[in-house]
Amino acid sequence: TKAIYELVMYFLWQSVAIVGSSDEYGKYGTDSLLKLFSENNICADFVEILPDNFNEHHSPSELVEKFSNSKAEAIIMFTKDTYVLSSLKKLLNKISAEPR
Q1: Which residue intervals define the domain Receptor ligand binding region in the entry (predicted)?
Q2: Reported pTM
């Protein structure tokens, strides 16, 4: 989390979105990052903790809507790679389908 914090500081991002899984990795990463951010005036535009059955019973579309409506300059994900891939694929499909 310290390295991620350093990247956020390097790029001067003031607002980020954080997505974590409900396991120890996701909760620890999310909590640690939120602590570092709160100490340094970085805003978490939204924080989402994904349920254990995210891909099975929850559509990544709901998460994609949050991404789309967010003002965050970066998305940080502390979760399984399959959750990241399915969410980002949906987000990219949504972006490519929007008129320019």
Answers
A1: 2-96
A2: 0.79
